[in-house]
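Q: Give me the 3D complex with zinc ion.
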Amino acid sequence: MVLGIESSCDETGAGIVSGGRLLAHAVASSMDDHARFGGVVPEIAARAHLQAFNPVVREALDQAGLRMKDIDAVAVTTGPGLSGALQVGLSGAKTLAYAAGVPLYGVHHLAGHVAADTLEHGPLPNPCIVLIVSGGHTSLLLVRDLVRDPILHLGDTIDDAAGECFDKVARVLGLPYPGGPAIDRAARTGSPCAVAFPRPLLGSKEHPYGFSFSGLKTAAARWAEQHRRNGEGFSVADGAASLQEAVADVLTHKALAACRQYEVRTLVVVGGVAANSRVRALSEERCAAAGVELRVPPMTLCTDNGAMIAAVGDLLVRSGSAPAQLDLSIDPSAPLEYAALHPVGRPVAKIA
Ligand code: KG4
Ligand code: ZN
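A: Here is the predicted complex, encoded as structure tokens.
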């Protein structure tokens, strides 16, 4: 029984996983507290984690019908993320692990997003191509054994990530925070080909798998501002649908090119932006046409949660990885190299 704790941004999550099975999943969000500022305020997020930590852990235990004495290990996000927010989750997780006398594992937040899919669809095939699209990261990865092997980056965000682009353009369009879901909703009644937004780095020889959404963000902002300056009305729905189309087109095009080049038959799309309806639909369409199996976690496991961190913890425990020491610290800008953010030693005997 592995308890996973997530607190890297504005969601306090606790999840329980055993042998790859999801037993419980509780999340408290401080999103509403940030809405009037138009973005996450780190200090408010950290305080909200402090308030939510115990109730969320209790709720996860209650859901699973367990008590702390039944927990065999604690896994916690130690990076990347907001330092104050991470600090609260790590302190809480250390306390629980120490009090229960069980091992502690430090987990990379993005590896958690990848592992989220295993809770719905079972173990990941080795190898697979993973497209991570979250608020701060857009990466295309070649993943082998998620907890034993190094994670190979085929391409990353050069400037703004896809989620960041959605959030910032939403603001310009006058849509509420968080922008991604608001754009998704507004796009339902718009036309995806109303505005010819650019497809950044599509076909780039230098960055075949790199992503850059800053230019697209500027193009969308200019489009809205130009209409406003000229005193013309414009359709927010059309702007949202066209932006969403451009992002989904670039993401899925590159992901499938990677599957072709590396001859990989499975694409896994994870992270908050994987909740986007057009990203999901276009991924399905293009994977079906290319004969590639598509795996996308259910919506509730796409955005930040503790179950995904428990999923990595569970894999680490089952692979015989060494736990962290109690002086484990946060790493707010941790690069994604391995799923664990502490030395795991050589895998020892496997627990069945
Ligand atoms: O993975 P996540 O929950 O947190 C980070 O690790 O960053 O991702 C949050 C991002 C935000 O930018 C949010 O706007 C975006 O995911 N997002 C969406 C949708 N739901 C969440 N973007 C587009 N469409 C959605 N339906
Ligand atoms: Zn995330």
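A quick observation: The pocket of KG4 (ligand 1) is lined by residues 9, 134-136, 163, 166-167, 178-181, 183-184, 271-273, 275-276, 303-304 (CB under 6 Å).
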